[in-house]
Amino acid sequence: MSLRTIFLNGLIALPVGLALPAPQMGDYGENKGPVGGVKPPTPTVTSTSGSLYGDSSFLGGNAPLPDPDKSDSAIVDDPEYVNGQDADADLGLYLDFDDTEVPQPIRGGLGATDPGPRTYEYEKLNPDLYAPPGTDTGDVPNAMWPLGLSHNRHGSQAGAGWARQQNQAVLPQATAMAGVDMRLGPNAYRELHWHTASEWSLITKGCVRVAAINEEGKSFIDDVCAGDVWFFPAGVPHSLQAMDKGVEFLLVFDQGDFSEDETFLVSELFLRNPVSVLAKNFKTDTSAFDKKPTDQLYIFNGTPAPKDIEKQNITSSAGAIYGKDSYTYHWSLQEPHTVPGGSVKIIDPTTFPIAEGFSAALVVVQPGALREIHWHTTSDEWSYFLQGSARVTVFKAPESARTFDFTAGGVGYIPVGNSHYVENTGTEDLIFLEVLQATKFSDVSVAQWLALTPKQVVKDHLGFSDELIDSLPKEKEFIKTGDVNMTAIADED
Ligand SMILES: *[C@@H]1O[C@H](CO)[C@@H](O)[C@H](O)[C@H]1NC(C)=O
Ligand SMILES: *[C@@H]1O[C@H](CO)[C@@H](O)[C@H](O)[C@H]1NC(C)=O
């Protein structure tokens, strides 16, 4: 076979024959955004001395006045600045603090140097919090949680996997949805379970076999891989087993206070019912339960599933779940809608009817480009960053705005009606997921809104030139292209 090359997302040429990521799915590894470290000094104190309290002669009024000339200085010598830092603060240019060892919280002359204490890495990762655009004002609840700050719960056996979560405990305003990032090693299981929330999932790496039954005794089994989606309604018991190369997936739940640690586990069901009742229920002797687990299994290693899925397909007289009731959607097979600057694809009950309240868009934004300013009319947005770095300004009535920075593994949460954009601030494609609690994925594009508003009205409100008004796009563009150099505009003034 000749080594032909094809273009993925119109960007990367890859030889056919190598395993290609599914459309819009990246080859994730370490985030390529800013990374670094701080080197604390080694402690030198080896013995006890001194007293815990000071003398009353140190009280103000008793104590001698200090000599400021001989006292500690809070001057920061030779502060370094990055491109765009001296530009007008309202331009809100993206400040790439990776270009300096020690960032300073200054923008357009406002702010001042920072003598510390501080941890540079947080500031490099969050330049828009540290040196906010001049347009940021007022109070906006936190809209960002990096899963890298979540406790990672390990499975019960070596190599079996782990899970880390975001819920209201760490992101208080995220009342409508919560998320979990779960890893299962080769052939490992997420223990058989159910929960009171509905579960929507996007597989980010590898493949997994899923199985479930519904209230009518209809059964379902399927194999799904990176880029595919599953959905289990509240209460539907399900099984997840990684295929032999392991899997990682993202779970989104329709309860903001959902906790991965509070699901109904099959091991617990057997531990929390009298053994005599178990024997009666399963029409057997009590000794049949001698080998039941003594604790939660949670995430644990399994025997490899047969390759032939039919060997694990069990149906009752009610038959199998299929068609519009299917619990999976092979979303990786859908090519995205490509627009200048990136691509978008949507999954909602239009094509995946069982996932009643879940509507999502997977968006790729090329370097320099922007997911346009928009808002959602009926739902909060839960978002997840799969690759790259981005920033988002949340505008909240009245009179408030705040800009948050995101890197791969970050969760975003934007309340209904709050306008926002997602700007690629890095040098690689930005890939992120927007999830709504809605029966259809929808948004209001501010550019389209103004394009479809009488021209005179727009002009009277905003003072736009006729040229700009004529250029407004009547069709929704989703993404806007832009200069890869995020500070180039500073020179245009
Ligand atoms: C499982 O069996 C049912 C009934 O025979 C069939 O309709 C369904 O397609 C099978 N599922 C798979 C994944 O093969
Ligand atoms: C971006 O533009 C600024 C302003 O023109 C310039 O100083 C800077 O060198 C440019 N950066 C790159 C990476 O080209």
Protein described:
The longest helix is centred in the C-terminal third of the chain and has 8 residues, at 455-462. Helices cover 9% and strands 31% of the residues. The strands form 5 sheets. Strands 6, 7, 8, 9, 10, 11, 12, 13, 14, 15 and 16 form an 11-stranded antiparallel β-sheet that branches. The chain is mostly beta strands and 493 residues long. It is built from 7 helices and 28 strands. It has helices spanning 120-125, 127-130, 266-271, 275-281, 446-451, 455-462, 466-471; strands spanning 5-8, 12-15, 106-107, 110-111, 144-146, 152-154, 161-166, 178-184, 189-194, 199-213, 219-225, 229-232, 238-253, 264-265, 299-300, 328-329, 337-339, 342-347, 358-365, 370-375, 381-387, 389-396, 400-407, 410-414, 420-424, 430-437, 444-445, 479-480. It has 3 domains: 80-135, no CATH class; 150-325, Jelly Rolls, CATH 2.60.120; 334-443 and 477-492, Sandwich (Jelly Rolls). It starts with a strand and ends in a 13-residue tail after the last strand. Strand 1 (5-8) and strand 2 (12-15) form a beta hairpin. Mean pLDDT is 93; it is low at 1-17. The protein binds 2-acetamido-2-deoxy-beta-D-glucopyranose (2 copies). The site of one 2-acetamido-2-deoxy-beta-D-glucopyranose has 9 residues, from strand 11. Its cofactor is Mn(2+). Pfam families: Cupin_1 (PF00190). Residues 31-82 are annotated as: Disordered. Keywords: Manganese, Metal-binding, Signal. Mn(2+) 1 binds at residues 193, 195, 199, 238.
What's this entry about, in short?
The chain is mostly beta strands and 493 residues long.
